[in-house]
Design goal:
alpha/beta, D-Maltodextrin-Binding Protein, domain 2, Alpha-Beta Plaits, 3 domains, about 30% helix
Length: about 290
């Protein structure tokens, strides 16, 4: 499905990047439930563009994995788009190696998957002399092998995706980290806000992008504001500025609802200490999967 197709049809409730059976679809199903209309788009940019334009109501995108870290392409797309983070969901990542029916491990020469999944299964994959080839996403790698009828090839993907594309599982739970999981963000157009669902006492999370002057001590002043207001920072990461060469912006995650009235003074002090502060979203922090 293309972005133009989404616009021409009745607006779906939510979109995710990749193929059916992907972990992104798992995230959408976990967050919205199976009764919600959920559609796919090819890639991260398609999904972010669709929700930013208002062509869809909600979208899910991966933002970080416990093994492979941040999905930086998604960070850059969100920084350049008019979208709001309204929720998050954490999906356990169980990976398998699958190929066409009748193939054996000894027959495999090439292994396809998303580069992050290849990294998450590196310990297993390095036990054999296979060529590791990057694909757009995990489920897409399996679909490609099935569509081509490609022998001598296998994909690293979820067991559910392997079943959807009629592939035979050659090895299970090949992820290097037994508690491997990926955090997904739920996006809405513009400045929309979802009401917290579930436990009203759930910890709220906020994601900010902060730009500071290229001068000594500017980041320290920002961090000092957070400390003074007893705001717990769970993540601090720099990304190249998209407007100034060799300058950087900082992504900051806080265990706080920075949209709440009581955080007004802290937000004002942050803006006084920085060049720019953008609140990408305030949303309930997702529970860790069992």
């Amino acid at each position: 499905m293309t972005l133009d197709t989404v616009r021409a049809e009745a607006t779906p409730r939510a979109v995710f990047p990749g193929e059916p059976g992907s972990f992104a679809e798992d995230a959408a199903l976990a967050y919205f439930g199976e009764s919600t209309s959920i559609e796919r788009l090819p890639g991260f940019r398609d999904v972010v563009d669709a929700v930013a334009s208002g062509a869809v109501d909600r979208a899910v995108v991966p933002i970080e994995n416990v093994v492979f870290g941040t999905v930086q392409q998604v960070q850059d797309l969100l920084a350049a788009s008019d979208v709001t983070i309204v929720g998050e969901v954490i999906v356990p990542v169980h990976l398998c190696l699958a190929a066409l029916p009748g193939q054996r491990l000894e027959d495999i020469e090439r292994v396809y998957s998303h580069i992050q999944a290849l990294g998450q299964a590196e310990t297993f994959l390095r036990t054999r002399d296979w060529s590791l080839l990057a694909a757009t996403n995990t489920a897409g790698a399996g679909k490609m092998i099935a569509d081509r009828g490609e022998t001598g090839a296998a994909a690293v993907l979820s067991p559910r995706a392997a079943g959807l594309f009629g592939l035979e599982i050659l090895a299970t739970d090949i992820q290097s980290e037994p508690r491997n999981r990926t955090r997904f963000l739920v996006l809405a157009p513009g400045s929309q806000v979802d009401q917290p669902v579930g436990d009203p006492a759930a910890v709220m999370h906020s994601t900010l992008i902060v730009s500071v002057r290229n001068e000594p001590g500017t980041l320290v002043r920002v961090l000092g504001v957070l400390a003074a207001h007893d705001l717990n920072m769970t993540k601090l990461e720099s990304r190249p500025s998209q407007t100034h060469t060799w300058e950087y912006v900082f992504w900051i995650d806080l265990d706080a609802d920075m949209g709440a009235p009581e955080q007004g003074p802290a937000l004002a002090e942050l803006r006084a200490a920085a060049v720019e502060v953008r609140v990408l979203g305030c949303y309930p922090k997702a529970a860790e999967p069992a």
